Structure formats: C-alpha cells, structure tokens
Sequence to fold (315 residues):
Amino acid sequence: MMPCDQVTDRLWAFIDGELPDDEVQAVQEHLEVCGRCFPQYDWDRAYTRFMHSASVRMTSPALRRRVFEALLRESMQSG
Amino acid sequence: MDRIRVTMMKAMARLNRSHVRQRQDPPQPGRPRDTGVPVAASESGVLGKPGFSEEALPWLDAVHRFALRLTRNPAGAEDLVQETFLRAFRSWDQFEMGTNCRSWLFTICRNTHLHERQRASSRYELTETDATGDNVAAASLMDQHAVAGGSPDDFFEQIVDERLLAAIDALVEEFREPLILSDLADLSYREIADVLEIPVGTVKSRLFRARRQLREALLVYGMESAYGDGPDRGSQ
Fold:
C-alpha cells in the first residue's frame, strides 16, 4: 500500500482530478483504510465544495448584458 | 442606436434562457469543472464573428470571477471584463478554433490588467510569504473543530462570502492568481501554467501553498466565530 506521506503529497492532485490514472487507485485504497489521511482528505474535499459553491454565487447578469451591448456596438461600428 | 437595443434585447433573451447552470458534487476523484454557460447556436450570427458567441461568451462569468479578484474592485473588474471581451472580439481572427478559448480569454484578461496597472504606474511587488507552520496551526484548528463534533462541511458553511473574498485578497499575488484560476475559475494545472506562463510544477506548489494559507485564515476566522475566543495557536 502507498505510504501516508506519498498519499498526502498527492491529495490535492487526486481531488483536482489531476492525478495520473495509475496512482488514483493506490490513493483511493489508502484513503479507505487510513484513519490519519482520510480526515485530511475530508477537509480538502469540503474546501473544494465550498469554493465551487462560492464561485457559482459570483455571477452578474447585469455585467453579461453590459458586455454583450458593448460587443454589439463594436460589431455594428466595424461592420 | 435603436437597432442595437432591439438586437441586444433579442439576443439577451436567448442568452438568459440558457443561463441556468448546475453544479453537482465532484466525483471521486476529481472536482466539477466549469463548462461555461451554453449559448444558443442561433446567436452565432448576431455579433458577426462566427464562433465568438459559442466559444467566448460562455466564459464571461469565469472571467468575471478572475477579474474581481485580480482588481479587488467590483467596478474595476467590470471594466476589465468588458475590455477583455472587446479585445478578444477584435482579435477573434487570431483565435484558432478548437484550441482552448477559456485559457486564451484569461490570458487576455491578465495581460490587460497588467498593462493597465503598469500604465497607472502602480508598484507591483511580489513577496514570498513564509508558509512555515501553516500545516501545524491548521491541523490544530481542524482537530479542535472535530473534537467539538463538527464536520468539515459544517465548518465551511458558516464562512460568509465577504470573509472568503477578504481572505483571498489578502494572499500575495503570486499565490492569489493560481488559486483564483483553479478554485474559482476551474482551470486545470496545465491551463493555469499557460495563462501565467510558469511551469506546471510551479503552479502546483503555489496553488497548494495558497490553499493552505487561505484555509488557515478561514479556520482562524471560523473558530473565532464558532467558539468565541479563538483557537490556541500554541507557541510559534
């Protein structure tokens, strides 16, 4: 089994979906049984969920309208 | 002007209908990726540049999130987004269809921001902060939260957006940029490396340190909110 320090080094890449395929299973198997690494993984995953939900809230319909209007002006002036 | 307004209203109506986006919990492993907002194919002719509506406009929200944290100023961010899309529109002939439009837009956004800042003659300093002790302090705080019976998700739910944004803004720029591009704009390590013109390994080291620092700041804030007196940080 992959040792704890190697799993810790790969946790973010694992969560980000950036870990090479041949290492994914080793990390998964380790996390299923390790009481030390899993809490860290749990926190890191909670962080990514939190950041994704925050990013969804940061949208601006008014800005979309403003940019689109500017593009239309540009398009009509150049066309 | 009336023709612009009418055309815009018709186009915006179509755009708004396709605006609803849903995220789901990330699969294991991996996190959800921002696929942008779909735009109706019938809009392709509205702007007169084939492909621009479908390829570039879906990333407007993602570019906005990046611009907000680059400028740390809502009004400045909106100006930056508009300028980014105007520049992209004017240069659309240079974009190679089938390549990564999102990275291309982020590069334009960042370059525009840097250019504007240089023009304003503001000083631009990068300072490496000392991350020593981040993990020790964070581990202590996470343990304290667990002992109190809280889950990680419980903890983050109490963080208000304003506090998150303040904590992101407090990061030095070399850490803030990869964190925003990854965690708020959903770029991959490779895409971030292309935008920032740094190696993938540097992206990873800066991103991971940025996350540690951000989480540390959120933990301190969250624990103070939840438990009043704040955590015992120990001797440092």
